[in-house]
Amino acid sequence: MWQLMIAISLLGNLSRVRASCTYPYVTVGEKCLFFATMAEVPHSEARQMCHSMDGELAALLTPTQFKDFVDYIKDNGFSGHRFWLDGSDAAAEGLWQTSAGHPLPMGTPFWATFYGNSEPNNKGNEDCLEVFPTYFNYMNDVSCDAIRTPVCEKSVASASRNATAPLACPMPYVELAGLCLAFVTWADQGWAEARQTCHGLSGELAAITDIEQLRAVYLYLHQESIAGHSFWLGGSDGEEEGSWTWTGGAAVDMGTPFWGFIGSAEGQEPKGGAAENCLCLDARAGHFFFDARCGASLNPLCMLRQQ
Fold this sequence. Notes:
Layout: H1 2-13, E1 26-28, E2 31-35, H2 43-52, E3 56-57, H3 63-75, E4 83-88, E5 113-114, E6 117-118, E7 128-132, E8 138-142, E9 149-154, E10 174-176, E11 179-183, H4 191-200, E12 203-205, H5 211-223, E13 231-236, E14 245-246, E15 278-281, E16 289-292, E17 299-304
Parallel strand pairs: 4-9, 13-17
Antiparallel strand pairs: 1-2, 2-9, 3-9, 4-7, 5-6, 7-8, 10-11, 11-17, 12-17, 13-14, 13-15, 15-16
């Protein structure tokens, strides 16, 4: 357990690094990527195309890499494309890995997850990895013979990163990705009452403002076998419908990769309108962000106030 906790802690405290790329590759966070929007080819041909450009299909292995990718395709008008990424379970069903043999992260915030279904589902011998716009640009498994657009990645030299020391969190808080969090699984409360519970623990309902934090919470929930619980977060649009803010006043990040969905036809959360004004992590759909009735009975997820 302690090895995983250290790894999560270091992930959440790495300083951001940006790649220095040469044409036709563009800088997308720490990666150099080429979006081959002129081509639509099967997976094997997509790999060959990337090899001819001294690269490989892009591998997105951290939440930050995935968020940078999604932000880039949204900002540059590429959201309608179905992109090939580096990932397959063709060698062993259910064992997803990159062409270099690195394990592909599963679950939130990478893969499409909605009520009653989670990707990858191998529906019809689906062994290759895509980003699927119908699923709001989350990951999806698909047949390797499908026709998609390649995204190539060129290796860049590793840059040094400085990790800060893990926080010393008082009980019942645990350190995750630079936050002291308390998972109050013994209390089923409405949102306002959950805030009071956190205040009693010298905290506030948690504000998840970085995608590495959401991933760390997701891993902890499964590690501790409490993934069946849904948790309140400190976000609301109660003051102005559609304007989601944390209790501290900062804006809540919207869209992928934070917000989930019930099914692609219903659209992406938040969908509850004036009836659902409080923010939660919904256990029924992978602990992505969902809006909910503020009177619903969920567990508080508290964050220790900065001293």
